[in-house]
Design a protein that fits this description.
Keywords: Hydrolase
Number of domains: 1
Helix content: 10-25%
Structural class: alpha+beta
Order of helices and strands: EEEEEEEEEHHEEEEEHHHHEEEEE
Strand content: 25-35%
Radius of gyration: 19 Å
Number of helices: 6
Largest sheet: 8 strands, antiparallel
Family: Belongs to the peptidase C59 family.
Protein name: Choloylglycine hydrolase
CATH class: Alpha Beta
Distance between the termini: 47 Å
Shape: globular
Domain Choloylglycine hydrolase/NAAA C-terminal: 2-286
GO molecular function, one term: hydrolase activity
Number of strands: 19
Length: 312
């Protein structure tokens, strides 16, 4: 249950997302330097990053869930539950990886959406390695945006990654993107006649969140610079947050709620993060990394921070 949006401004774009999760979760920012061996492919060969990248990860493990590289390409993973998405074997001559490591591969190797799409036929995702052993391969779909403003969602057809949408700006979860667009158009209809106060859905299923996010994004005040775009992204996603205790997940005997909101800017190649219980916004760019040649992690404060005014 996650929601991703893209907020454009004249010089660039900010991609932002809510990360909703159903079990206790440790997460942090991670920086991966050029040339770093972050995973092995399905033939057990090392995968290394050509470009510096940073983003959010779980338990300080290398797979990035949402991030940005040094050239401003931003990407995000969201759950996309469906049957038979992946091949069960690698293909010789292809770039063979799994969905867990694909975001690192994309951010580590491409500068633009166009470059990624040009190479898409050479990329093969599978849930088993060359020896037939199962690998971790979550049901993810992916969204990217670059410095030119080009954006794309990648889903699946016949075990292949396929592009979806014409510069899409919103991604949630299943069903497929085209179905979300049709339901949005059916729900909203004529914008000039739509009564958003009374008729805009407030539900939290993927379809309802897509409709709400797309409508709020389309009607929100336009951003003139990166600071305004960051501010707009957090404001738009606030109504999409799931509060702690609102939704109990019986299968895990725990609550599904929004763990963090992260945002990434194409022009400054920076990221901003708010945790679920702390409204402080943390801003990080590549100049903040202590040593660009070494892996680096940062953990965010989860307790609410107050700033006291001068009473003197």
């Amino acid at each position: 249950m996650c929601t991703t949006i893209i907020v454009d401004y004249p010089q660039g774009s900010v991609m932002a997302r809510t990360l909703d999760f159903e079990v206790p979760l440790e997460y942090n920012m991670i920086y991966i330097p050029r040339g770093f061996h972050y995973a092995d492919d399905l033939y057990h060969k090392p995968m290394r990053s050509k470009f510096k990248m940073m983003g959010m990860c779980f338990r300080n493990l290398y797979p990035i869930k949402d991030g940005v590289n040094e050239h401003g390409l931003c990407g995000c993973t969201n759950m996309f539950i469906a049957n038979n998405l992946f091949s069960n074997h690698p293909i010789e001559g292809k770039i063979n990886t799994n969905s867990l490591d694909f975001m690192n591969f994309a951010l580590g190797n491409y500068k633009t959406v166009e470059e990624l799409l040009d190479d898409l036929d050479n990329i093969h995702l599978a849930n088993k390695d060359v020896d037939g052993n199962s690998v971790i391969c979550p049901d993810f779909h992916f969204m990217f945006v670059d410095r030119t403003g080009d954006s794309i969602i990648l889903e699946y057809k016949d075990h292949k990654l396929v592009p979806c949408g014409d510069n899409p700006k919103v991604m949630t979860n299943s069903p497929k993107y085209s179905s979300h667009v049709k339901r949005y158009e059916k729900s909203i209809g004529d914008l000039s006649k739509f009564n958003q106060i009374k008729d805009l859905t407030g539900a939290y299923d993927p379809v309802s969140r897509f409709i709400r996010a797309k409508y709020i994004l389309s009607t929100h005040k336009k951003s003139n610079n990166v600071n305004e775009a960051y501010s707009s992204a957090f404001s738009i996603l606030e109504p999409l947050k799931i509060t702690e205790g609102f939704f109990k997940n019986d299968s895990h005997d725990y609550y599904t709620f929004t763990r963090y909101i992260s945002a990434f800017d194409t022009q400054t190649a920076s990221m901003a993060v708010r945790t679920h219980s702390n409204t402080q916004t943390y801003l990080i760019d590549f100049d903040d990394i202590p040593d660009e040649n070494k892996i680096f992690s940062y953990y965010f404060e989860n307790k609410l921070e107050f700033k006291r005014i001068n009473k003197g």
